[in-house]
Amino acid sequence: MPSLRAVAEGRRSKCCSPTSSASSDIVRLNRSTGTGRLATLVSMPQRSPFRYFKTSPEIIRLAVMLYIRYPLSLRNVEDLLHERGIEISHETVRYWWNRFGPMFAAEIRRKRVERLRSGVQHRWHLDEVFVKINGETHYLWRAVDHEGEVLESYVTRKRDRSAALKFLKKTMKRHGSPKVIVTDRLRSYGAALKDLGRGDDREMGRWCNNRAENSHLPFRRRERAMQRFRRLRCLQKFVAVHASVHNLFNLERALTSRSNYKVSRAAALAEWRGLFAA
């Protein structure tokens, strides 16, 4: 009968055999870096989010894009896919949107934030609008850059200094700090900027904040199609996803030629179809 020491040595040699080279590499990585779980996750390949679904990823991306980008209901998306020979339920579209919408938006936002932070932030436009949730008034804060890019969308129950300060800190932490901030005459902006030490670079005036005012129009059209929202959490999730998708496909068609618009549109569709592609 083998001794306990021989059994332990046999197990040690088995663990260090070439068949378990991947696990040994992970162990060595953990011991050298001392990061434990983080090092293990870094060494593992990224798993596809579509691995548990029988439906093609192209169909899932198409359904999510139709629902977010256009003012369509869940049943409208179901009918449009039916015309293309794709038989799904509107509840399937709802499940896909809730599961993959935030994932797609986070990937789009990550790429665009890297490009935005590499350049100079010249001017930001800040504005807030009223949104009704079950008859209760909430406020949707929005930050837009000088080119019409929606930087951040944030929903609060109040419109005071603390809400404006939290919104500004969240936006500046992700996108950096601009040279000039354009707002309306709401006093909460002035108090929040004073706490941040940035009250001197604030601009106010008539028609100066049209960039932020116009950025609310796509959301308002989508809100009417959805027949308003019922929970603050659902509103926050939708405005964040909608802003990212709108930034991707907002090509300013009236300001570019037809040839440039076709090239930009093809590039946007290619980027969308490449999200989490194998």
Task: Show unreliable segments.
Answer: 4-43
Number of domains: 3
The radius of gyration computed from the alpha-carbon positions, rounded to a whole number of angstroms, is 25 Å
Please give the largest β-sheet.
5 strands, mixed
Strand % is: 5-15%
Taking the alpha carbons of the first and last residues, their distance comes to 52 Å
> Mean pLDDT, rounded to whole units?
83
Helix vs. strand class: alpha/beta
The total of beta strands comes to 5
The main sheet orders its strands as 3-2-1-4-5
The secondary-structure element order is HHHHHHEEEHEHEHHH
Report on this model:
This protein is an alpha/beta fold and 278 residues long. It has 3 domains: 4-43, no CATH class; 48-119 and 232-278, no CATH class; 121-230, Nucleotidyltransferase, domain 5, CATH 3.30.420. The protein has helices at residues 4-15, 21-33, 37-43, 57-69, 74-83, 90-118, 161-175, 187-195, 210-225, 232-249, 258-273; strands spanning 123-133, 136-145, 150-156, 180-182, 202-203. A hairpin with a 4-residue loop joins β2 (136-145) and β3. The longest helix has 29 residues, at 90-118. It is globular and about 60 Å long. Residues 4-43 have low confidence and may be disordered.
Secondary structure topology:
Elements: H1 4-15, H2 21-33, H3 37-43, H4 57-69, H5 74-83, H6 90-118, E1 123-133, E2 136-145, E3 150-156, H7 161-175, E4 180-182, H8 187-195, E5 202-203, H9 210-225, H10 232-249, H11 258-273
Parallel strand pairs: 1-4, 4-5
Antiparallel strand pairs: 1-2, 2-3
Feature tags:
11 helices; alpha/beta; 278 residues; globular; 3 domains; Nucleotidyltransferase, domain 5; five-stranded mixed sheet
